[in-house]
Recover the amino acids of this structure.
């Protein structure tokens, strides 16, 4: 019964000094809300990156151009279709090879001119890179071999051209003054890392090399690796084939670059996780600062209530009774502040979800840790004022003015 009396006395004290109590709890409220919302944001970022990883399809290596030397002479070695065929022929772990050439070109649809990225590639591009068609179809191998003037648009281009997507299939897109028939439109996939391919347009590789670039050079070669082969082993195999094709001597520097596209996003995921921990740590500092504020206010409260403490001791209250009374008051301040902080943190997480465009799920562990931490702060920083109150001499306390 004594404990509940202490709780009632503490609540009464908070009610009497309500505005001061709110200001006292402010640091705890902000700290708890920040911990919960930042952890939720970090978790949401992690999930968004994971969905981007899933959208990349299987294990895909990217072979791109690089600066290097050949037999002691500096060269700007280019990738070409022979490199892609060599990889397809010699790398047993490669399930698909997707050569690409790209460049920004002025195009025209109706009376609207736009500068967009045109990608020349093979028909298996969509399957390898997990692209889905919203309307129409992908170009075929026969269209690629025949250098047909057909084009598939990225999901953002209908809006770019201010045209209804359903009306575009069968229309002509003017590329370098030549009409290309629109045969398909991809679903929007969203940005992957810092790249957004939804504003690209795709044409058959042979068409791009014959009609747009005038050569057989490639910008990169995508290599899809069998799921049961470690990506590190595949990198060694592809590197071996490429060095042989480019006649690079033993010990010579590669004139090409190899990269796992998922590697970059994994780095992003690690960075997002570290950043969320950093923000949570900053929020934790806010909780400590809030605890110091509570300690200061409780010390002031002890001074204000010195005479009350003297009366209680004169009526038989023990040091433990006084100690517990002030500890309970400090903990109630922190617990109430923690509950308000949880509510604000949940609200902030919801707002961040709408602003960031991804899910920001509340972490039960983060809520529990933040709440327990706030209660611990009340216990820790309430101990000094409580001990000061408990150690007051009753006679001196009664004489205090």
């Amino acid at each position: 019964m004594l404990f509940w009396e202490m709780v009632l006395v503490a609540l009464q004290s908070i009610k009497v000094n309500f505005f001061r109590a709110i200001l006292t709890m402010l640091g705890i409220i902000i700290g708890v809300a920040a911990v919960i919302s930042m952890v939720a944001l970090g978790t949401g970022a992690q999930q968004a990156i994971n969905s981007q990883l899933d959208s990349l399809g299987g294990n895909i290596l990217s072979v791109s151009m690089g600066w290097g030397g050949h037999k002691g002479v500096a060269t700007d070695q280019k990738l070409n279709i022979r490199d892609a065929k060599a990889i397809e022929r010699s790398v047993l772990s490669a399930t698909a090879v997707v050569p690409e050439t790209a460049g920004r070109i002025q195009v025209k649809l109706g009376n609207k001119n736009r500068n967009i990225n045109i990608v020349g590639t093979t028909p298996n591009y969509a399957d390898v890179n997990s692209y889905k068609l919203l309307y129409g179809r992908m170009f075929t191998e026969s269209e690629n071999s025949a250098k047909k003037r057909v084009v598939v648009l990225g999901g953002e281009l209908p809006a770019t051209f201010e045209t209804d997507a359903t009306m575009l299939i069968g229309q002509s897109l003017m590329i370098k003054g030549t009409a290309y028939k629109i045969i398909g439109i991809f679903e929007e996939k969203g940005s992957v890392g810092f790249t957004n391919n939804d504003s690209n347009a795709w044409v058959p590789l042979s068409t791009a090399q014959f009609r747009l670039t005038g050569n057989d050079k490639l910008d990169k070669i995508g290599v899809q690796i069998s799921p049961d082969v470690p990506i590190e082993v595949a990198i060694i195999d592809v590197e071996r084939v490429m060095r042989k094709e480019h006649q690079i001597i033993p010990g010579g520097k590669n004139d090409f670059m190899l990269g796992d596209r998922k590697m970059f996003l994994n780095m992003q995921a690690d960075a997002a996780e570290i950043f969320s921990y950093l923000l949570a740590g900053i929020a934790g500092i806010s909780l400590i600062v809030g605890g110091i504020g509570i300690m200061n206010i409780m010390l002031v409260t002890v001074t204000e209530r010195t005479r009350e403490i003297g009366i209680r001791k004169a009526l038989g209250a023990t040091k433990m009774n006084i100690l517990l009374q002030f500890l309970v008051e400090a903990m109630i301040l922190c617990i109430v502040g923690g509950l308000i902080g949880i509510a604000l943190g949940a609200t902030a997480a919801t707002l961040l979800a709408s602003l960031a465009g991804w899910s920001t799920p509340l972490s039960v562990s983060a809520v529990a840790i933040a709440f327990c931490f706030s209660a611990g702060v009340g216990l820790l920083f309430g101990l000094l004022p409580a001990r000061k109150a408990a150690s007051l001499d009753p006679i001196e306390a009664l004489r205090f003015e």
